[in-house]
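Support reply, case 0932

Customer input (verbatim):
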Amino acid sequence: QLQLVESGGGLVQPGGSLRLSCAASGFTLDSYAMGWFRQAPGKEREGVSNISSDGGSTNYADSVKGRFTISRDNARNTVYLQMNSLKPEDTAVYYCAASRWANIADVTTILPYDYWGQGTQVTVSS
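Our regenerated output:
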């Protein structure tokens, strides 16, 4: 069974940090581009970041540039999202997704993604 499982979410104060993980089972991620998306209550799902299958190319939404870093460890079949300097507006459910494309230039689109995780809640509040 192909599955993506996110972890690492939680409650953090503004200015704090979290690292999200996305682990794959049932398939290997090394040929997949990976993306992180988020969805806040009452809002549409938005792209946060993506990374090419070989890790050589990354893209970020303007709202997280300089604060978030996406990375991958293909040996561990896992993708990460390091989130620093968190703001209340970063509060959302965060999802990872896998695409059979090797590289996706547009961080906003959900169309190329074939598999999705169930999401992990991130709450930034004092």
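We compared this against your earlier run and they match. Two observations from our side: The chain has a mean pLDDT of 96. Residues 2 and 9 are 22 Å apart (CA to CA). Please reopen the case if you see a mismatch on your end.
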